[in-house]
Amino acid sequence: MNPWPKPDTPGPGQESVWDYPRPPRLEEFAGSITIEFGGDTIASTDRAWRVLETSHPPTYYLPRDAFADGVLRRTVGSSWCEWKGQATYFDLVTATREAARAAWTYERPAAPFEAIAGDIAVMATQVDRCTVNGEDVIAQPGGFYGGWITSWIVGPFKGIPGSTGW
C-alpha cells in the first residue's frame, strides 16, 4: 500500500496543502480572526501570520495584543520545531474555564520566522470557537498539530490515521 495520499483537487478560490512548501513558508494574513473560550472572545485581530507547510492546514499566529488581558498564563515546558526553534506555552484562562498548554509562541524563532517572535498560536481543539473571516475553523486532526481548516483549504491533512510517514 502506498503511504502517500492523493491530494484533493482545489476548486475555485481554494488552496491545496499539497502546494505548500517544505520547509514551511511564513506569510502575512490580512483578515479577521477571532477566538472564543469560556463564553468570552479572548482574541480578535485583522492582522496575523500564517505558517504554510506541506500537508498541514495553516497555523495562524496572532499578535500578543490581540488577546484580552489576563487570558494568557505562561506555563512550564517547551518543545522544539526543526524550522522555528524552541516554543514556549501558555494556558488559556477565563473566569469560567482553563485550557492547559492551549497556546504557544516562539520568543526567538529561527530565520525566516523572526516576524512571528512573540506572536501566539492557539490549538483550535482546546477552545470553544475559532473563526477566520467569519468562518468557523475545523481543527487539524491528530491532536498534535495546530492547523486551522477552512472551506478554502483542501487536503488530505497530516494528522489523520495513517499519515505519520507523510
From TrEMBL:
Residues 34-124 form the DUF427 domain. It holds the Pfam family NTP_transf_9. It comes from the Bacteria. This is DUF427 domain-containing protein. InterPro entries: DUF427 (IPR007361), DUF427_sf (IPR038694). It comes from Mycobacterium spongiae.
